[in-house]
User: Fold this.
Amino acid sequence: MLHLEDFPSDAELVENTLKKNGLPVNIRWVDNEADFRKALVSFAPDAIISDHQLPSFTSVEAFQIFKASGLRIPFILVTATISEEFAVTMMREGVDDYVLKDRIQRLPNALVNALQKVKAERDRELYYNKMISSGKRFQALVENISEAIMVVSSRGQITYTCPAVKRIMGFDHDEMHGRQFSNFIYATDYAGMARFFDAPAARPYVFHEHTFRVICSDGGYLWVEGTISSFESEAGEHSFVVNCHDITRRRESALQLQESEAKLKTVLNNTEVSYVLTDVHLNIISFNHIAAKSYERELHAVISEGKNLTTLTPTSMPRETLSKFRHALKGELVSYETSFDNDGQKNWYQVKLLPVHDDHKEVRGLLVSSENITTRKLHEIERDKMTADILRHNKNLEQFSYIVSHNLRAPVANIMGLAMLAGNSAMLSKADFDKCINGLQQAARRLDEVILDLDQILQVRGAIKEKKQLIHFDALVDDIKASISSLIEKDNIHIDTHFEVNELFTVKSYLYSIFLNLITNSIKYRNPEIAAIISVSSQKHNNNIFLSFKDNGLGIDLQAHGDKLFGLYKKFHMDKEGKGMGLYMVKTQVEMLGGQISVTSEVNKGTEFILQFED
Amino acid sequence: MKRKEPSYKYENVLLVDDSELDNFINEKTIEANYFARKIYVNTSAKSALEFLNNLVTMGDQFSDAHPDVIFIDINMPMMDGFQFIESFKKMSENRLRHPRLVILTSSVYHEDRQKAINISSDIIFLNKPLTKEMLNNL
Assistant:
């Protein structure tokens, strides 16, 4: 308690009065302005009691000082005499009470009342301050937030927009207030939200998340993600808080990502190459449409994520293919060609196994790409066939030129030489001249023969015009036996046949000629000292038909003549007639039918010719 | 009236050819051109080799009978002209008077000529028919 009083007796009176009423007071008594100011700060009083009339200054001045100090404590005026008017003025200024000195017994009550009143005032003030500061905070929050917040009435009218609405949508507060919320939403998007506004009562306070477009002041729109919640106002009316977050950029990048993914998918699905991605255990992670199609077509396997590549088909993956995958899993890039035969259609694939590495260069899986290269392959095969054809034609031409330069040239040289001799007949005897004429005739005949042979060779070597047909070996041999029956009977030839395979789809006249030539050859070169046996047989090995013509004849020294055996006009038995055409023609015809011929022979034991044809 | 003994270019020639007709033409041409006094004829390479071998074994007193020129055909059965030359070279090593080897063939096949040159550079390659000009150049 701070007491401002100049008379010590009055100070004592106040102290006594308070003590008498049981108020435990610690009173600081000051009598001048300087001490009063000091005490206000240092003493920290709970209340101030002030005399009105002091020698140095008045209670009015003291009150001003007290007010300026900002202290919120009771200030009670205790005075001997004051006018009613002054008292009212002071009370209006804020003095809490006044007590006349002659009625000092009222002071304790006045003090207690004033203390209570000031406390209540202070509490209220504190409460107001709290209220004000939290409200301000909330407002600041709402006004600085980046989300657009709108309050919409149950009739769909906008009643509040936060400043962010202007930033995001570009509309001023006034442009939106009182207008329908739906006017600011992209029409097709609002359709999906309308339901929520229509029946708010059914789900009060429900947060409703929605992605929609808001209309902007520039006529464009923005994608926002909105939360709509309903609440009941104090007046009991339903309202909605719409809280929107601009996601245009996010949405655009998401759309771009989607688009690029879609593009990549489109590319992968429209490429001619099949792709299958697997992990290190060859479990399928993903694949494109082509992969699904080609696995179905070639392996009759349904490809799906999670399945293992090695167990797609009932039959396990071939060992050599597995080994290729193993190499790829070690980090090698493996590339190979493979083919599948389905319903008579053969498809070729170029397969590449690309190891997929992680950042640590470790193999994490495989990308298996398969490209259908059938068209290219067919072209290659066609080209190889054409090359082989050209080579064959070229060989034929060489053969032709060889025949011309050797066999055609020989009788021509004879004719030239004989003509030269005959032209100088003075040097010749009659006998020699006749020999010349005879020789000329011989040479001319030989020339004609060679020309006929050439024609025959060229016919065989040319394109085969005759259609292929199914030929039965036994019937063919029977035909030949019939045609050379006199020869067989005369020399008592025995022809054995044993056909494990009895048929071949081929050109009949060629095969007939081959059989006839080989059989007559065996007859011609039989061993005259023993009974001739010719055995003709057939066997099948790996899609190849082998025909054997074996005799017990004279045989031939293959070491000395093997390379010339099938040559044109090559003869090895001078005592036998023939011009060395037979085996040449046999070889030519076998080759024309796509086959091969080989021979084994031993002098005086016999000869075996083996023919090989693709079935 | 005694005929004057004609002068021959060579003493002996050997013809190796399987064709009787060719041998007749070559013999008559050689005779007509006084190319050699004596003409040996063999119709196979094998018999020609035997003949030459006999000459060698008979020794030096028969060296006058050794051929100065050997005409060989290429295309002959059993043993052809090239095989004959190879065998002959092996056999003759310094034991025969070195005859001139002439391949006389009807073949105009370029590879045959090349093959003859490859065997030995001193082999003469001639195309039938044998002419006066050819004999003059030998």
